[in-house]
Amino acid sequence: MDTLRLEAVLAPAEGLLIPLGPTPDEAALQRPVTGLEIYQPGTPTDYTDRIVLVMTVIDDAHKLQQIQAECGGAAALVVQPDTAAGLSMTGAPVTPVVLRRSPWVTMDALIRALTSLTRISAHDQTGPAEQAAETLERDAALAVHRRESALLALLQGTTEAAVPAAMLGLRPDLDHVVIASAVVSKDLEALRLSLSVGFPEERSVLSDGVLFSVLPVHSVVAAEALRPGHPVETQARVTDELRARLGRAVHTSEDLPIGVGSVVSGVFSLHESAAVARETLRALKFKLGAPALADARGLRIAGGADVADALALIRAGDALRPHGAALAELLTLLAEYDRVHHSGLLPTVLTALEHRGNLSQAARQLGIHENSLRTRLERIRVLSGIDLNEPVSALRTMVAFLANPGIHNEARS
After folding, report:
1. In this predicted structure, what is the pLDDT of residue 23?
2. What is the pLDDT of residue 1?
3. pLDDT value at residue 302
4. pTM of the predicted model, to two decimals?
5. Phi-psi region for residue 38, left (φ > 0), alpha (ψ -120 to 50) or beta?
6. In this structure, how many other beta carbons lie within 10 angstroms of the beta carbon of residue 392?
7. CA nearest neighbour of 179 among 300, 355, 11, 358
8. 210-216/203-207 β-pairing
9. Cα dihedral sign for 37, 41, 44, 48?
10. How far does Cα 75 stand from its chain's mean position?
């Protein structure tokens, strides 16, 4: 029964993995492969006969040799695309083999590809080779889970940030920024690839339908182009550069809003940048009036300053959330009436507010005649007491939609 060899894993992955230094010799290619592991600096880990994914930034030969020595029993090391191709291998151990991940494939895509290719290689075999393929598949899923868990821990805030940051290769001596993207499934891989190619040091994770990406600021804007002590200016430069670079790289017909978080120092405050990015994304998706940056045609990238009005309203709405039910009491009456009579009165109120009293535009969006809209608004006034011609009533209704997401969503459905 054949053992799964490194050669059987790497041959079909040509182009995805690039040798760092000389082409591996035959002895190295015949190393057995029993699984896949993420390099965990400072943590005792058995890397024997594993393909080890190294997220740590390697900027000199000494660092590479240190990792090779620590993973001496591994079948191969896979390092990041930005690892210097000409990095000296003099004095380094012959094994494990060191391979660079192509910048044209994301880490998650590479893990999936290695798993798939290994499964194909072992398809006609039994015993150790097939078992190794199954182990690699399990290890791949575990590696993805560990990487995502480490990044989520940093984005949510943790007092133990040093450990997950080291696993992910995020440097505590650099400034970082988090961006949050509300991307549809069909555009997810394209966006991830664009980020990976444009910003090789980025780390990303998908959480609740939002793609969070951590970027070192120096990979977005050159350090010499920034003035220390000017955070507002730095934030604007980072946002502008992201808008320009991703605008050239990402092409989509779908609405793709991306919120840019605050620039933070090191890795211990990544959760603060993530919170701002998430909040800015909410402002970009704010469904009251025309979307922010609506003329951007698909890709909409904004920092907090670009959506200041929407942000202020979202924060006010969050603060009023405990009073949401009371504020929306009259809207709830309309919602209950709609459920029985299918009259569409609740959506009518929201549409009329969005068009700020322009009955012609509101009627066009609702697909009814302007006179029919006037009749509906009068009916709404009689049934619920909501009078959009009266400033206080109109303001309360607007605030109610902000403070009560449930009634707002029902009006949208």
Report:
1. 78
2. 41
3. 93
4. 0.73
5. beta
6. 8
7. 300
8. antiparallel
9. positive
10. 31
pLDDT score at 189: 83
What angle do helix axes 329-341 and 391-403 make, rounded to 10 degrees?
80
- Residue 50 three-state SS: strand
- Per residue, what are the HEC states of 136-195? HHHHHHHHHHHHHHHHHHHHHCCCCCHHHHHHHCCCCCCEEEEEEECCCHHHHHHHHHHH
As averages over each run of 10 residues, the pLDDT of the chain (413 residues) reads 76 83 82 85 85 86 88 90 67 72 82 70 54 69 82 89 86 93 84 86 90 93 78 90 89 87 93 95 79 68 91 91 95 95 94 88 92 94 94 94 92 86
Q: How many angstroms separate the CA atoms of 236 and 231, rounded?
A: 9
Amino acid, res. 403: A
Which two three-digit tokens encode residue 158?
């943790």
Sheet containing strand 50-53, strands side by side: 17-19, 97-101, 76-79, 50-53, 35-38
Could you tell me the two tokens for 162?
Answer: 């040093």
Q: CA-to-CA distance for 346 and 253, rounded, in angstroms?
A: 30
**Nearest partner of 221 among 204, 244, 205, judged by Cα:** 244
Spatial neighbors of 5 by CB under 8 A, at least 6 apart, are 29, 30, 31, 32, 33
Q: Is 259 left (phi over 0), alpha (psi -120 to 50) or beta?
A: beta
| DSSP H helices in 59-123 | 61-70, 107-121
CA 39 to chain centre: 22
Distance, CA of 300 to CA of 12 (rounded, Å): 38
DSSP state of 23: P
φ and ψ at 169, to 5 degrees? 75, 25
Q: Where are the alpha helices (DSSP H) in 250-294?
A: 270-284
Q: What 3-state DSSP class applies to 306?
A: helix
Cβ neighbors of 158 (< 8 A, separation 6 or more) are 164, 271
- Residue with token string 């044209």: 104
Our measurement of the distance from residue 366's CA atom to the centroid of its chain's CA atoms, rounded to an integer in Å, reads 35
Neighbouring residues of 375: CB distance < 8 A, sequence distance ≥ 6: none
User: How does 186-203 read in b/e, with b if 16+ C-beta sit within 10 Å?
Assistant: ebeeebbbbbbbbbbbbb
Contact assessment for residue 181 and residue 258, using Cβ atoms and an 8 Å cutoff:
yes
